[in-house]
Structures are given as C-alpha cells and as structure tokens.
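Aim 2 progress. For Single domain-containing protein, the working sequence is reproduced below.
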Amino acid sequence: MHVFVNLLFILATVYFCAAQNQIIPNDPEVNTDPKYHCFTKFLPEIGGLAKGQTLRMKDECKQVTCMANKDIEILGCGLVGVPQGCEAALGDLSKSHPDCCYTIKCE
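Predicted structure tokens for this construct:
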C-alpha cells in the first residue's frame, strides 16, 4: 500500500507540473503578416512572433516562445512545495522567466 501511495503522489506531481505548460496552435486564418511565424487570436496582447522569439507575458510570470512548427509554447512556473515553517511568496514580475517565479521564505 505504501508503494501505491508513493506512486500516486509521483504521478499527481508530474501531472500538475506538466499542466503549467501550454501549447497553442498557430492560427493561419489570422496570421496574414509574413513577418510573423506564429500568431494566435487567443493572445492578442502578444500579437505575432518571429520564429524562435521568446518573451514574457505582461503581468504574469509566463514565458511565450514561437516554435519551429508555428505553435506557441507557454511555460509557467509550475508547482511549489513549501516546507513546514515556510511560505511561498509571489515572484518579482520585473524579472524575466523563471526568475519571476515564486520564492520560498522561511522563518
């Protein structure tokens, strides 16, 4: 039973960490400008991206990258395990990803 619980915990951790990453397909009907390799109407604040271009989303600690296959990858911070006696604090959004992610502060 102990092994099953450990395995379940590991699988849940992997699932939730993977959920912090997203892939958004290119929107060819909207992408009419040849200077953009990637484009999606779901992220109007981003607009178009050149192939390989990476930037951080405004007001969020997420990295957006235009992939070679024209998909847009969004990479978040993932989950944070907080030891007893410590707390997770929001990161500094003036920094780039992943330096803008959560920090752990202990007593």
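The chain has one domain: 2-79. This observation will guide construct design in the next reporting period.
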